[in-house]
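Lab notebook: predicted structure, single chain.

Context: the supervisor wants predicted structures on file for every construct in the current expression panel, including those that have not yet been purified. This is the next one on the list. No modifications to the sequence; it matches the entry in the shared construct table.
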Amino acid sequence: MSEMETKSLGAQDAQAVFDDMHRIFHAYKEANEERLAELEQKLSGDVLVEEKVARIDAALDDQRRKMDRMLIEKSRPQLALADRVTDGISREHKSAFRSYMRTGEVTGLKSIEEKALSAGSGPDGGYLVPVPAEREILRRMANISPIRAIASVREISTATYKKAFCPTGPAAGWVAEADARPQTANQQIADLTFPAMELYAMPAATQTLLDDAAVDVEQWIAEEVNTVFAEQEGAAFINGNGLGKPMGLLSYTKAPVSGWGWGKTAYLPTGVSAGFAASNPSDVLVDLIYSLRSGYRQNGRFLMNRKTQAQIRKFKASTGEYLWQPPSQLGATATLMNFPIIEAEDMPDIAAGSFSLAFADFNRCYLIVDRVGIRVLRDPYSTKPYVLFYTTKRVGGGIQDFDAIKLLKFDVS
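Prediction complete. Output recorded below exactly as produced.
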């Protein structure tokens, strides 16, 4: 089967999954309407109807995950195709890296290091993967890691990134053409610091696999580490405590919207412990949306896990329309009140006092810093007959604009 035929087949499969998802959503709405009718008539739900709604809800989530996986796979180019256009130095580095991975030969990489190309070993040992392979690993991680896909990402060449900010905003004023320009009020300038922490993985291979000329070692290392890197950093970007890992969205000091100040994340309470209000439960979602200033709100997204989304999926507008809607086209995301939903399983389940839902302009809110270079250290001795590849990357993260995010607290206050 040709490459074009394979891509066409993949597109057809994705379309079929997309169509099935919409069909299941219609079945979900019908089952939920039946459940609501039972509640109105008997003041208690039919167990069989409740189970039917739960089964369809689970099937809907399964279709979403299946479609996401297919779209990710469909968008992955082979590294060999992504690296067709390289200069002589890049090709030299690529060839030397492959020789190192297969045999442990370091002469070629050391030669490149001597040319001061910043492509050799560092004080912690190991060698940098070729640039195209590094870019492909980061691109794949963005497809898997929910926060990396929506946050700002900056590459750095140092251990720490510092960003100046003014908590009160820049001082400004109006003045006529010929008027004097009085001095503006003094501004307070401070630094936000984003250190890059070390994230590692240690895939193993047999020497037989490495000796196989048909195996693309760069492709293999990318496939081995991108998922585990994405899962680990994805968890840290939400719940990390800043000690040896990035500072997560939910780890900062929190304050109610009325008492918010810079350096804290603001929240709105649902008014009910461990849940939404019994009547008009979606009202607090409207309040959450409009608690974000308009400059941020136009790029707002909801962030929650699958269980929270399943509960919100039942909410309806006064017109009877469901507030949650499936993706309108292939590659799109589900929406809530016309704002995209980002599903992150590291967000907490709804519980008493939990912060299980966020609404933010994540591109302006959260900053990820990537230290340039993914490093690999070959270890053929520790677990013979396997060869270990100690693979590290340095990444940091934290909130850069505390005004761009609002949380929902599932509590009375």
